[in-house]
Specification:
The protein is α+β, with helices and mostly antiparallel strands and about 170 residues long. The protein is built from 5 helices and 8 strands. The chain has an 8-stranded mixed beta sheet, sandwiched between helices. β7 and β8 form a beta hairpin. α1 packs across α3 and α4 packs across α5. The longest helix has 17 residues.
Length: about 170
C-alpha cells in the first residue's frame, strides 16, 4: 500500500477488473487507452502480465483509476516506464499527479530507479500538462507511434523524469 497526499495505491486484483473496465469504457479514457471490445479481458491481461505491476488508485475509499509500471532491466539502460488512467469524474483535483509522484518516489526508494518515462498521445494535452507538473520533460515526438481506434497511426510524446527533478 502506497500513500500519497490524496490517493492510496494498492496492488490491483481480480476484484477490481469490473470497475477498472468500466472506467476504461468511458469515452474520455477509451480515446487514449485501447483494449478492443473486451475491456475486462484487457484489464485481466494487464494483471496477468508478469513484467507489469498494476496498482489501483483510490481516493476517499473509492477506486478512481489505475497506474502501472514496468522496468527496463538491462543495467546499462535501466529505467521504469509508467502509464495511468483516471475516472473522468476524478480529474482536475491533482489525483493523477499525486499517483504518479507517489509511485515514482516508491520506485526510487525501493528499487533505486533514477529515470522514468511516459508516452502520452501527442494530442493528449491534459495528460502532458499533468506530467509536466510532476517534473516530466518532453524528449521528443515519436511519429506514427500508435495505431488508433480509427485505424490510423498517431504520434506520441516521449517524456522523461529524473529522480532529482521529481516535484512535490
Amino acid at each position: 500500500m502506497l500513500r500519497g497526499r490524496a490517493v492510496t495505491l494498492r496492488p490491483a486484483t481480480d476484484a477490481d477488473v469490473a470497475a477498472l473496465a468500466e472506467i476504461r469504457a468511458t469515452p474520455e479514457v477509451r480515446r487514449w487507452w485501447r483494449g478492443g471490445d473486451d475491456l475486462a479481458g484487457a484489464v485481466r491481461a494487464d494483471l496477468a502480465d508478469e513484467e507489469l505491476t498494476v496498482y489501483a488508485i483510490e481516493h476517499e475509499g473509492r477506486l478512481v483509476g489505475a497506474i502501472q509500471w514496468y522496468a527496463e532491466t538491462d543495467p546499462d539502460y535501466r529505467h521504469a516506464s509508467l502509464d495511468i488512467f483516471l475516472d473522468p469524474a476524478a480529474r482536475g483535483a491533482g489525483l493523477g499527479g499525486d499517483a504518479v509522484r507517489t509511485l515514482a518516489r516508491h520506485l526510487v526508494d525501493e528499487y533505486g530507479h533514477h529515470r522514468f518515462t511516459i508516452d502520452p498521445a501527442a494530442a493528449n494535452t491534459a495528460a502532458i500538462r499533468a506530467y509536466a507538473k510532476v517534473g516530466f520533460r518532453p524528449v521528443g515526438i515519436m511519429r506514427r507511434y500508435e495505431r488508433g481506434a480509427d485505424g490510423r497511426w498517431h504520434d506520441a510524446l516521449l517524456m522523461d523524469l529524473l529522480a532529482e527533478d521529481l516535484r512535490d
